[in-house]
Specification:
By secondary structure, the protein is mostly helical. The protein is 86% helix and 0% strand.
Length: 160
């Protein structure tokens, strides 16, 4: 009896990894049709290239940072619109509420950053620091929205 149980256990343990690899390969085939969005990297590359200019001044750094932040905010709006196409009405309504709350946070945080760095540093430096934090907040939100879109599309494709 012990030999039979041991034999069954060995057979099960040997076939389970094979079954999982089949499922993983099936999912991998479906996932290859979904490309992970790359706009945050594109904006990052443009931003970094702007900052890599020789003899860049604080004013120029500020302009690079503001431009990068604005690009992230534009992409956030586009991403919210793209998500409307893949989310249910209820999910999209919750996303809009979440986006409104995030926008409130973003504006409050921006106000905090402006007041914190405004009087404590030489001209342009505090504004550049403040704008850089704003850029990072916008970048993070955009990455979240991209991940939601990517995961939703991945789930829907694998559900079929």
């Amino acid at each position: 009896m012990k030999k039979i149980i041991l034999l069954i256990a060995v057979i099960v343990l040997c076939t389970v990894p094979f079954c999982f690899s089949q499922v993983r390969n099936s999912i991998k085939e479906k996932v290859e049709n979904i490309s992970h969005p790359n706009i945050p990297k594109k904006i990052d590359d443009e931003f970094n290239s702007c900052l890599e200019k020789e003899d860049i001044t604080y004013h120029q750094m500020l302009q690079c940072t503001i431009e990068g932040k604005n690009k992230y905010n534009i992409e956030i709006e586009k991403m919210v619109k793209k998500l409307k196409k893949v989310l249910s009405d209820e999910q999209y309504s919750k996303l809009i509420k979440s986006q409104q709350k995030w926008q409130e946070f973003y504006e409050q945080d921006n106000s905090f950053l402006d007041s914190t760095f405004g009087d404590n540093y030489p001209p342009y430096m505090p504004i550049t620091i403040s704008e850089n934090y704003k850029l990072l907040n916008a970048k993070y939100r955009l990455e979240q929205l991209y991940e939601i879109l990517y995961s939703t599309e991945l789930y829907k494709q694998n559900a079929n």
